[in-house]
From TrEMBL:
It comes from Apilactobacillus kunkeei. The lineage of its organism: Bacteria, Bacillati, Bacillota, Bacilli, Lactobacillales. The active site is at residue 12. Mg(2+) binds at residues 297, 359-360. One of its GO terms (biological process) is 'de novo' IMP biosynthetic process. This is Amidophosphoribosyltransferase. Keywords: Glutamine amidotransferase, Glycosyltransferase, Magnesium, Metal-binding, Purine biosynthesis, Transferase. Binds 1 Mg(2+) ion per subunit. Catalyzes the formation of phosphoribosylamine from phosphoribosylpyrophosphate (PRPP) and glutamine. GO terms for molecular function: amidophosphoribosyltransferase activity; magnesium ion binding. Its cofactor is Mg(2+). In the C-terminal section; belongs to the purine/pyrimidine phosphoribosyltransferase family. It catalyses: 5-phospho-beta-D-ribosylamine + L-glutamate + diphosphate = 5-phospho-alpha-D-ribose 1-diphosphate + L-glutamine + H2O.
Length: 487
């Protein structure tokens, strides 16, 4: 496994490219490299050769290490390729679950890469099992391909649409067949997916615009909820599998997951984070000597906080560049070890100072508890923790690995208790209204275009297979009652 430390699990990255002048697999590799922050558990690239055969190379760990094998690209010929970076939300951490998945039983063979999490995967698997489907993995992602294979529709596009209508939850899929590349986005657009075009005419569909930049592709458009985008030698066509759509893209993409140089639905992630930091400062004015961020994800928010408050921004924490993200790590023990190997204090910045520590989120509390202690050990007079997103109390079922409320410190403790647990002098979060204002999507639906369920429990869809377990655990943790009290 990679030398990776992350407290919030990432979301998976997908990258597809059609019509490259030259080997498409190399373009996919570059694109996936820019998406590595979205998952560190495994990666794969598949290419379609001149004989329309699918060839794949995949492995566990970081992309660079997997493709360091001198023979990795030996069979990856052709002008179209599909890649995936995995961070597991469903299924085991095994090589069988590393994507792209290949489907070669039908006359139309194809491959797929998925970012998201299906909320009715168990029900669909049960149904598929009865039709005789033999699964190649225990991941939810392959279900789309299995549904396409059993569909009776006449055309491949018809089969894609029929299958997409049976799935619920978060899904941003890219599919590749010898005839075309397709992008399919769930009716709420929970996960990001963008289309771009290179100078050689090749079309790219991937999770974030930072990967478009990496492969010199110009942004064309975001894939919208319910859409099927079809790319073939005649160009890009837009279709849809449903018109019953409502954009509620994951707000955590803006808070934490996406790279700051990405733009999602017209909003720069870096600028949104700066506004989150500025608003948390405005909502909770506090006197202090320095503002510091927690590299990497909260640096934009810390800058925004410093500018708004007028308190100098300083580099109080250093991140070891050879250790990766913490939330993404699959076990708590590895997360804790990860944080301690990852961050260190610049003592001259901290000693005898009242410090504002800005982080983008508290999930399990591993990171903040550790950092506050480090800052105090380095001589900080006081440490005021400011979180540039609201208190994270509710699990996510759409593609982030926080499915159990019991894992979330915010679900189990009040803000006052969390402040004591992390031994901070004070602790404040951004309000949900502040978060919506900071992201400022150009969307006037009831959700302002965002899924904020992790903070307010307002899930934009039914939870299907997860509903019963969620209800039981939420009741046990008194989440509903607390919200009623809070009005
Ligand atoms: O409360 P916790 O469970 O510790 O999780 C929250 C922390 O995890 C994330 O950073 P992470 O270390 O994953 O990645 P980063 O280096 O990209 O900021 C996030 O930015 C918080 O710092
Ligand atoms: N983070 C993701 O998008 C995960 C994809 C898929 N659900 C898996 O577990 O592999
Ligand atoms: Mg962080």
């Amino acid at each position: 496994m990679p030398n990776e430390v992350k407290s919030l699990n990432d979301e998976c990255g997908v990258f597809g490219v059609w019509g490259v002048e030259g080997p498409a697999a190399k373009v996919a590799y570059s694109g996936l490299h820019a998406l590595q922050h979205r998952g560190q558990e495994g990666a794969g690239i598949l290419a379609i050769d001149a004989n329309k055969r699918l060839n794949r190379y995949r492995g566990q760990g970081l992309l660079g290490a997997i493709f360091d094998d001198p023979h990795a690209f030996d069979r990856l010929h052709g002008n179209a390729a599909l890649g995936h970076i995995r961070y597991a939300t469903a299924g085991s951490h095994t090589i069988n679950n590393v994507q792209p998945f290949m489907f070669e039983n039908t006359e139309t063979h194809f491959a797929l890469s998925h970012n998201g999490n299906l909320t009715n995967a168990d029900t669909l698997k049960e149904m598929l099992r009865k039709t005789g489907t033999i699964f190649q993995s225990d991941s939810d992602s392959e279900i789309f391909g299995d549904l396409i294979e059993i569909s009776n529709q006449d055309t491949f596009l018809g089969r894609i649409k029929e299958a997409a209508n049976q799935m619920h939850g978060g899904f941003a899929y890219v599919l590749l067949s010898p005839d075309a590349m397709y992008a399919v986005c769930d009716p709420n657009g929970l996960r990001p997916l963008v289309v771009g075009r290179r100078k050689d005419g090749a079309v790219v569909i991937c999770s974030e615009t930072c990967a478009l930049d990496q492969v010199q592709a110009e942004y064309v458009r975001d894939v919208q909820p319910g859409e099927v985008v079809i790319v073939d030698d005649s160009g890009i066509k837009i279709d849809h599998f449903t018109e019953d759509t409502e954009l509620t893209i994951c707000s955590m993409e803006y808070v934490y997951f996406a790279r700051p140089d990405s733009v999602i639905h017209g909003v720069s992630v870096h600028e949104a984070r700066k506004r989150m930091g500025a608003l948390v400062a405005r909502e909770n004015p506090t006197k202090a000597d320095v503002v510091i961020g927690v590299p990497n994800s909260s640096l934009s928010a810390a800058m925004g906080y410093a500018i708004e408050s007028g308190i100098p921004y300083e580099m109080g924490l250093i991140k070891n560049q050879y250790v990766a993200r913490t939330f993404i790590e699959p076990t708590q023990e590895r997360r804790e070890r990860g944080v301690s190997m990852k961050l260190s204090v610049v003592k001259s910045v901290i000693k005898d100072k009242d410090v504002i520590l800005v982080d983008d989120s508290i999930v399990r509390g591993t990171t903040s508890r550790f950092i506050v202690k480090m800052l105090k050990d380095a001589g900080a007079k006081s440490v005021h923790v400011r979180i540039a997103s609201p208190d994270l109390k509710y699990p996510c079922f759409y593609g982030i690995d926080i499915q159990k409320p019991s894992e979330l410190i915010g679900a189990n403790h009040s803000v006052e208790e969390i402040k004591d647990i992390i031994e901070a002098d004070s602790l404040k979060y951004l309000s949900v209204e502040g978060l919506i204002e900071a992201i400022d999507l150009d969307c006037d639906n009831q959700y302002h275009g965002l899924c904020t369920a992790y903070f307010d429990g307002k899930y934009p869809t039914p939870l299907y297979d997860y509903q019963e377990t969620y209800d039981a655990e939420a009741k046990r943790l008194h989440l509903y009652e607390e919200d009623e009290v809070n009005g």
